[in-house]
Prior knowledge:
alpha+beta; 6-stranded antiparallel sheet; 11 helices; 6 strands; 62% helix; flat
Amino acid sequence: MILERYIVRNYIGPFVFSVSVITFLFIMDFILRYIDLFLNKGVEFHIVLQTFILSLGHMFALIIPMAVLPATLMTFGSLASENEITAMKASGVSLYRMIFPGFVLASFLTYGMILYNNHVLPESNHKLLNLLIDINKKKPTVEIKDNVLIDAFEGYKIYVRHKDDKTGEIRDVQIFESDKKGTLLKTITAEKGKLKYLEKDHILRFELETAEIHEIPRGTDPSTYRRSVMRNYIMNIKDIDRSLKRSERTYRGDREMNVKQMQEKIENIRGDILEVRSKMANMATSQVQDALVLLNPTVRDSVLNGRGAAAGTDGANRRPADRTGRPRIQPRVVGSERPAAPPPSRIPSKVPNTRKALESQKEIKDSYLRQINRYRVEIHKKYSIPFACIVFVLIGSPIAIRMGRSGMNMAIGLSILVFLVYYICLIGGEKLADRRILSPVFAMWAPNILFGVAAFLLIRSATREQSVARWRWRNPLKLIRRTS
């Protein structure tokens, strides 16, 4: 147990360092993604901080598994560079015993991340999305700047050549007022004035001096033009409430649900699919029954001759005549009377309508199946990504033992390469599963299977003290010799 505790202690420092570096990268991505939104909307600092804290929810779902691989590479690389791996082997310690402490730590991380993804992550995603929706609904903070045309107010465009931020005085003002369709209604110009914001009433007030108003009066001849000059003119732009209105959205997407909620959603969708299939079966059965009616020669002749419903009905009761014009007597078997047929004039028109209805129901069913696949993808993702902790330990340990002297550069470069391949496989599998090209199970577990097989080959080659390429090329030759 002394050896195991020693390896575990060597894991702590690199793991904390890896988590810190990767978290910093995610924070920079968060800042670049939302900085424009926060500045344009004038979001307060505590709202920005709350958004950041909620964003850490989905960040840590990826940060923790990603930090395992560089931590493993640095831990075993350090042990190998200091010849401690050689000393362990000389003492009879197997490679499996060296990897076992990291495997146990990764197993605990996997179990904790599964609980985290199922309970904490959905709630943080739900609150974060609600907050982002409220921020997007928030009215922007408009700062009147010199020589800038401001069009953030609905129905107004404002241009000010000069503004004094201390006194609120403005000069060479031009205000263009338009309706909802964008038609210009009024143009106001003034040499100077003052700008005030009434916080209590949410009003932006322009107090203009020597203002000229150019407009076309409503309800008059379009050629009518009116120009007014006022010594003092006050214009108010109302409803300039820049506070954040918080709301609670009850709807939840697939990334805002836990496994139980998604399974219940899948069962409800499957019930809807059964209803759609029942409708399709009824439509098809009705169409087939109408088509079977055409087996009656009288009804078929009536349809082909284009007779109306009444003519078709009379023709159904009329017996065919012979050459003399007399009705031909046909034998009839008792109990073989056919059921009354629907009016034949309605039969041909049902065919295209039924086809369109069936195609519409099929599209509905396909949309339900895509929804099920999307929920199943999210369910398996909650397990497959945490399981990557174990896979990264298994694949990182033998690589670091064999290449331990390469140092930090090897750990960083190899981690980036593995992350890139893993992420491409994960995202590609998710897209293919959403389109029903791949099974959600295979799509989400394929990266772990791929790297798991690679880890098995690396561990096997490391225990035999041979390179992967050597093992890979010699075994087919041995296999051929054995079979010959």
